Amino acid sequence: MERLDLLSAWQIRAGIEAGDFSATEVAQASLATIREREPRIQAFLQVCDDLALKAAAATDARRAAGQKLGSLAGVPVAFKDNMHLVGSRTTCASKMLENYESPFTATCVRRMLDAGATPVGKTNMDEFAFGSSTESSAFFPTHNPWDANRVPGGSSGGSAAAVAAGEVAIALGSDTGGSIRQPAAFCGVVGLKPTYGSVSRYGVVAFGSSLDQVGPFGRSVADVALAMDALVAGGRDRLDSTSQNVDVGFANCLEDPVEGMRVGVIPSLMEHKGLSAEIKEGLEAARKALKGQGVRIVEVGLPNMDSAIAAYYAIGPCEAFSNLARFDGVRFGYQEPSCETLAQQTAFSRAHGFGAEAKRRQLLGAYLLASGVYDKYYYPAQQVRTLITSDYAAAFKRCDALLLPAAPTTAWQFGHMSDPTQMYASDLFTISNNIAGNGGVCVPAGLGSSSGMPVAVQLQGPPFEDKKLLQVARAVERGIAHAGLFEPNTVAPSFVERGGDGA
Amino acid sequence: MKKLNEVLRDWDVTIGLEVHTALTTLQTKMFCDCKLSHDDPPNTNVCPVCLGMPGALPVPNKKAIESIVMAGLATNCQIMPRSYFYRKHYFYPDMSKNYQTTQGPVAFCMHGHLDLEVPGQGANGGYVTPIRIQRIHMEEDAAKMVHVGGQEGRIGGSSESLLDYNRCGTPLIELVTEPDIRTPEEARLFMEKLRQVFLALGISDCSMEKGSMRCDGNVSIRRRGTTQLGTKTEMKNLNSFKSLHDALAYEICRQAEVLEAGGAVLQETRHWEPSKRRTVVMRTKETADDYRMYPDPDLAPFDLSEEFVQACRARVPELPDAKRDRYMAELGIKRKDADQIAGSPAAALLFEEAATMAPECAGLVANVMVNLAPAATAITAAQVAGLAELLRDDAITFAQAREVLQIVDGTDADPREVVDKRGMRQITDADALATTVDEVLQRCPSQVAQYKEGSRKVVGFLVGQCMKASRGTGNPKLFNKLLVQRLDEMNRG
User: The whole model's pTM is what?
Assistant: First the structure.
């Protein structure tokens, strides 16, 4: 029998429909793989065997009853642990919410379940999504499936690692400054941050409300497209007043030819001094892959890109300060025992419930919003936001998508990145996308010649043109595979070799 | 302490009001679907949104936006085509998110005014003065806190504080006036007028007692003839028109006493204690609170379309001032009566229905509405019209009308039938009364003589005698007329 843990979401869906195997068998295989691999990866904060087997049994019952199967029927899916799923805890990888039971199910999770997905667990992350390595999890770090000495990236590191290790076919993450795209790049999987407003934020614990966007990880562009169709089906969510209607049809247009399309490159970014040689090689390979399919490469500029990190580290912390104010130990979450006064209880609950990075960002936000300071940082940051948004609008008049680096380097080793500002700077290529709100996707472009780690490139598209963006991403994936650099649906090799005894 | 009148001779007063009105006539809260109710057991109308649970998001209540736009239109405000919700941060358990969703510099309604008519007092004539309205903004209410174990439910000395989040997220509109108010009386009149307008709009029950309309007052004084504004204090717990007036009057006198003794007024928030008739310090504002206000990223900028505003405009009913003017012009009602009836939507409705039933005596209908109806609990328009007609026909006296009202109140009885059935109808036949008049005049020669000498007062006494003789069945007005006729005849004869 085939290794069920190595199948794509499409293959799982088709196999269940055809009766080659049952959803329950797929769920059991996924759970067995998790049991076997988790000691080394630690991608999961919780594994929900009961929920998984129950959902799989329901899918099998539907099939037995001759009912129509959902587009993700029986596909094992993992959720970043900032997404509510009734029957599981939602910890945000923080001591603050260590025992917090999800009081309702997030809209994005609900839509995956409505499409028939099998929920297998909640994945590790940087605490409250503050970070780029998953090291700030209050519980344990996650390891990169390609090299256990390296970080998986972050903040959605657990989701990226779970997909890369073949534990699940699809995972959801959230991206505030690159938190889907950068770990996807580090782990050799595809990760999409859709245009802001495409996917409901209801039930996802907020970090930066104007920047956060939920999106899928998969081992192929096709699997990511399949998940997107499930996420936008049903239209805008009336529980999230910033959500918008997006038509389904992501999976239909992937094989449409890209000939004649224009993809923009920004010379200063392609030659950025911080880029490693491997990354430059990846970009060159992607450029070739696109050219080979009749895409014209044009040079464009994003002149205000240099201000993106500064603007992001003003807006993000301000929103984080405000969103995390509700964690005061009064109604839910960590409550400091034996306090004399309310003020003490609030102060100590927050002091002992939050980790260092969460405190750093909130203090920064509290400072930046203070009267007199607001006008110097928050307000100009919003002006920068307008400038960057118009830069993108101008660039997209000249091209259909942008090709740019995902991160300056491949995944770094644990302990390599100790200075927070150095880590903030590594988000350079992903952050402007959250500031402007348009979509971005990272696609593997080969393995680094010196590190042996996955190298990825990033594509960005105009707002609400994420279908075309995935079409271009699929062209890169196709060309890279054609060049023999990286196959779609690749599971991290150490695990392929070790074999999956669950299947 | 000096009396207010004395203080006002030497000092100019500047008062500004902040009025919070809960939109109690809505079905649901400001940002979620929870039921709005004051009567349910604590913490039963709550959900992840109003409890501020992680992951929950606000969705604005369209009907609340309609209400505030109507309030703005009724107070001559500019309705802003684009406004924003802001987050106002402070750590306190009554605000579940530890920030209140409110509005920033641009509110839904800006730059309005209400014209205040201040009636004359003694030698001073009445006057009309515009009170400018700075803004009306939308916000959410906090949870109710109940402090147990302290005095009068205050937090000081309490052993526990209980939280009821049923109120958390109730839609509130806050109206802020410019500091245009000059006396406690003007402040009281402004609040009364605002309450009448909001009642007419039907956006709130406007109960100051239940707290659905709350008012804070800012007051400062400065020496007459100077222009530099004094330091202001803020007054809380003004939960009745009387408290509003009395607290401001007390505070003005207190500030004058402090300043006249060479002291300085401190910028502070003070609490009105109605039982002791004084204000006491709640907290001193040494530095302004920093609420770290910024635009709420969960709520997009709010663009109000012209169509939406027009639809709200169409729903603004005739307002009390216009109603009063119409009653005066079309029905010939006295200004004082028209004012009083127009101020209450329920009274106006009853009046207009009754006036249609008895169109030829609208003035008496108004009289019944103002002087009799307020004592009734459930009186119908037909009954009001019936009473007015009985009075018009001199069939009953005003005192009897009050009695009839008590009988018919809460029933659907026709006052005319009640009067007939109980034999209350007065005799209005002059021939029938003439005999009584003659009898009385015969019995009272000395009063007749006094009349002859020019005393008109005795007529009242003689009417009383006639009423007594007829056991109250004669009409006093008619007796009066007949007596004067007869006396004048006697004098001539």
Answer: 0.90
